[in-house]
Amino acid sequence: MPHDSAEELYEDAPCGYLSTLPGGLIVKVNGTFLRWTGHRREELVGRRRFQDLLSPGGRIFHETHYAPLLHLQGSVREIAVELVRADGSRLPALVNSVLRTGEGDD
Question: What one-character DSSP code corresponds to residue 49?
Fold first, then answer.
């Protein structure tokens, strides 16, 4: 049985992964997320914010509930949103987020 590297496991995970800076700027994205949404890595990383990928209603929810809750509690679990794919179609998604401060994070 082949041993996949951690990077290969991340890239081809059964779920989409994004890493962002506190303001939402995307700094890392896995291949699964890119395949699901049709976006290209170079158009997202360092250029777009997570909230830019949400439907209009999702952006409002992000500003009024999601982001404040994430900063208050340090995590958000199972929030239903609609992501906007590269072709403009929508992808229902369940989002889990963890705020990492670098202080004592495992």
Answer: B
